[in-house]
Amino acid sequence: MLRHLLKLIWKRKSRNMMLSLEILLAFLVVFAIAALGLRYWQLYQLPTGHGWKTQWSVNIRAAQELPNDPAIFDNIKRSLLEMPEVASVAFSSFGTYEMSRWTSEYAKPDGSHVLTLDGMGVSDDYFATMDMQIAQGRFFSKMDDHADAAPVVINRRLADQWFPGKDPLGQLYVEQTRSKKDGQRYRVVGVVEQFRSHGEYMDPVYFMLSRWIPGVGKEAAHSIMLKLKPGTPRTFETRLNARLKQIRNDWNYVITTQADARASMLKTQTIPLVILAVIAAFLLVMVAFGLFGVLWQNTTQRIPEIGLRRALGADAGDIYRQIIAEQCLLSTGAMLIALALLVQLPLTGVFGEALNWPVFFGAAALSAGLIYLLSLLCSLYPGWRAARLSPTQALHYE
């Protein structure tokens, strides 16, 4: 039966060519959406490495460049800790769930293994404030004062890349500069399993958390991170802003709960997926109408052939199954061609981890299932119409 159906499809190859191309293009679009959705789901399952439920962020905005004055930041910390709702206060270069990003190139002391790292300067209290857990070593603290190299906490991804099979603790690396002589030296004191500042949909990157000390260096911290006691109401924002204004009235403060920042970031990051899904839905509707019309026309042109089969003893069920099977075989051929092209992407690593093998196979299965469902639905009525024709009607059809 299969061989017979393949012969029928091949004899009508000129008619089936455009239909196969339409199915192939639809499969490619659905595959892209499915792959993106599965990658988002895959990323969402990974830990971010920091808390957000009881954390708030305060972004400092000033007309002029913020001074890295230790007295100012010490006053901010002491004043905020006096508020009964505040459990912990820390400072950072920027907040989590923000679009801010800071990257630079680093290498081992001998200049080898150059990597681009994402980084963030944080104060000693940052880890406790953000409910972070150490995987290896320790977080930096006052015991690192006057160290021969700046202490850093790196994520596991960076540790495995730079120091495979070695203990990363105590290892040195340097910042790459134009002169390659005066770059800042860093010493690893701790490792965290994961840290993704942009939240659940951020791709894992090489990340380092360097120590920021008030009054050391020119760069000031622009974000105040707070850990509040559970049950703190949103009305606390008014009193918090008033307290900050008492410290520096010439600065503006943007106060955001990390829960709200997270929700906003997730919504922003899923916008491309939603837009592509809407476009794909319209495309599938157009493909469905085109597929239905072509199948209707093909069935009409084959009425004499169907009548001959009925006259030779084929029942209505045989005709029905033939029409549906032919369409499924045609869809299978188009999807196999598409998969032969798409499989080159994970093999060559063009999209890196964004299109890994689990995502590829999952997207292929979902796309194939949707195309088969679409083909089945579009062939049901033409098949039913062909099956209900009597042999006499079919043989006398003009």
Can you describe this structure?
It is a multi-pass membrane protein. The chain crosses the membrane at residues 273-296, 328-347, 359-381. It comes from Duganella lactea. This is FtsX-like permease family protein. InterPro entries: ABC3_permease_C (IPR003838), MacB_PCD (IPR025857), Macrolide_Exporter_MacB (IPR050250). The structure is a single chain. This protein has 398 residues and is of the alpha+beta class. It folds into two domains: 1-46 and 266-396, no CATH class; 64-249, no CATH class. It has twelve helices and eleven strands. It has helices at 2-11, 13-44, 70-81, 126-129, 156-162, 236-247, 258-301, 303-311, 316-342, 344-348, 357-387, 391-395, and strands at residues 55-61, 86-92, 103-107, 115-122, 136-137, 150-155, 172-175, 185-192, 207-211, 223-228, 252-257. The strands form two sheets. Strands 3-4-9-6-8-7 form a six-stranded mixed β-barrel. Helix 2 (13-44) crosses helix 9. The longest helix is centred in the C-terminal third of the chain and has 44 residues, at 258-301. The protein is elongated, with a radius of gyration of 31 Å. The mean pLDDT is 85.
In short:
With 398 residues, the protein is of the alpha+beta class. The protein has helices spanning 2-11, 13-44, 70-81, 126-129, 156-162, 236-247, 258-301, 303-311, 316-342, 344-348, 357-387, 391-395; strands spanning 55-61, 86-92, 103-107, 115-122, 136-137, 150-155, 172-175, 185-192, 207-211, 223-228, 252-257.
